Amino acid sequence: MEIKTVLFDLDGTLTDSGPGIMAGVQYALNKYGMEVDDFSRLRCFIGPPLKEQFQKFCGFSDEEGVRAVEYYREYYRDKGIFENEVYDGISELLRELKGAGLKVMMATSKPEAFAVTIAEHFGISRYFDFIGGSLMDGRRTKKSEVIEYVLDAAGVEERSTVLMIGDRDYDILGAKEAGVHSLGVLYGYGSREELAAAGADFLAEKPEDVLRYIAGKAIEESKNCNL
Question: Fewer CB atoms < 10 Å away: N or C end of the chain?
C-alpha cells in the first residue's frame, strides 16, 4: 500500500475543539430550557453531524434539530469557533507530509466556511491542497459524502493510495464507505475501543505516530518495488 493522499478530519484530529463545540451545544440547549449539569456528557457532539446528534441526544424532531443547529451557530460563529487550539505536533506533521510531496486535504463534517476560517486563524491552511466540509444548509454532512466531494474536487482517482485520518468511528466508517484506508488517532475524542470496532487500519497515540505509519508504508512500498 502506497499513500499518496492524506485526508484529515478537523475536530479532535487537528484541533482540540471540544470547549467551543460543547459551549455552543449548551447555549442551544438553554434555548430549549434544558440544562446539562455534567458538561462531559456533551462530548458526544464532537465529530458527528450536529443535527442528527441533537435528535439522538434530545429526542428532537427533524425540524427541532435544524433549529438547534441554528441556535448553536449563534454562539459558535463568533465565539465558540475560537475556543479551540491546534494539538501539539500537528503543524510539524502537516509540514513533513507536504515536504514529502503528499497531497494533504481536510475532510470534515463541519461547515466548510468554518473549517477554512479555523485553518486560516491557526496558521495551518497553507499546508492543505484542499479544505472540504459540509454546507451550511445541512447538506453533505455524512463523512463518506465529504470524502467523495474532496477527492472529486482534487481529482484523486486512486482510492487505494488514500488515507483518511480521524478520531471518531464516523471517520473510519466513512472511509470504508468511500473505499479508502483509515487511521484512528487516540489523542482526540474517540476511544481505542470505538475506533477498533469501526475497523481502523491503524491506531496512533500521537501525531508523530501518524508520520511514522505513513513513512513506514512508503518504505514498505519501496521494498516491494525492488523485489
Answer: C
Alpha carbon separation from 82 to 54, 123, 180, 192 (Å, rounded)? 22, 13, 31, 28
Of 93, 82, 97, which Cα lies nearest the Cα of 23? 82
User: What is the C-alpha to C-alpha distance for residues 168 and 48, in angstroms, rounded to an integer?
Assistant: 8
pLDDT at res. 219: 42
Q: Residue for cell digits 479555523?
A: 118
- Catalytic sites, residue numbers: 9
Q: 40-76: per-residue pLDDT in tens?
A: 899 999 988 899 999 999 999 999 999 999 999 999 9
Query: What pLDDT score was predicted for residue 220?
Result: 54
Report the C-alpha gap between 29 and 57 in whole angstroms: 11
Nearest to 132 by CA among 110, 117, 103, 155: 110
